[in-house]
Amino acid sequence: MLRALLLRGILAGLCASILATGFAIVVGEPQVGQAISFEDQQARAAGETLMPAIVSRDVQSSVGLLTGAVVYGLSLGGLFSLLFAALYGRVGRASPARTTMWLAAGAFVVVFLVPFLKYPASPPSVGRPETIGARTELYLLMLTWSVVAAAAAVRLGRWLAGRWGSTTALLASIASFLVLVLAAGLVLPGVDEVPAAFPAVTLWNFRVASLGTQAVMWTTMGLIFAAASQRLMTGQTSGRRTLD
Fold first, then answer.
1. Does the N terminus or the C terminus of the chain have fewer Cβ atoms within 10 A?
2. pLDDT digits (tens, 9 = 90+) for 225-244
3. Residues 181, 145: contact at Cβ < 8 Å?
4. Is pTM, for the whole model, over 0.90?
5. Would you list the DSSP string of 76-120?
6. CB proximity list for 157: less than 8 A, separation 6 or greater
């Protein structure tokens, strides 16, 4: 059963990565091109010469983007299926499809949206090269805290469910998660390295494209895996919802 779920998760991640790549190429790549043009203009104005890229821009925006997204999607799909296997029947009593959709929505918020709101993605030419390490560490710290806060909120909800009822427990767990991530957002330092002359519209559109790409990824993977897991679980399980 676990192997079958893993296979379906990987396939769902593959399909999601392909659709997300198409969205990124259509919506996001124009903003990247504008950001690179801005960087070129700034370098010329300063009398500097940019080093030619090892990989051409055409390859980066097509094959390179697709390859990276596919690897990411396959890995994400496999991890998603394992998380489903660990949680199904142990947190709530929803059907496989409903569990999958709740899990996909929650993972989108925890893994992407919370860190993104604190440290949103930025196009090329935004951010100083010497601070890349520090910015990466801050992002990973926010991501880790978001995951830990989600796990704590789930445990709190399970503990409260038998005492206050499922609805109250759910609201309490959501509230606890929000409090924890808001506290981290206030404590962790902000990052603002956007050049004053950088076009605000380009920056906004790039971040909207980044958000949209992830939304397409998680929505597609959730829908495909929901259909696959529902068929698999209802066809091979009965009585107690367990995984062999």
1. C
2. 999 988 888 874 434 444 44
3. yes
4. no
5. HHHHHHHHHHHHTTTS----HHHHHHHHHHHHIIIIIIHHHHHS-
6. 91, 169, 170, 172, 173
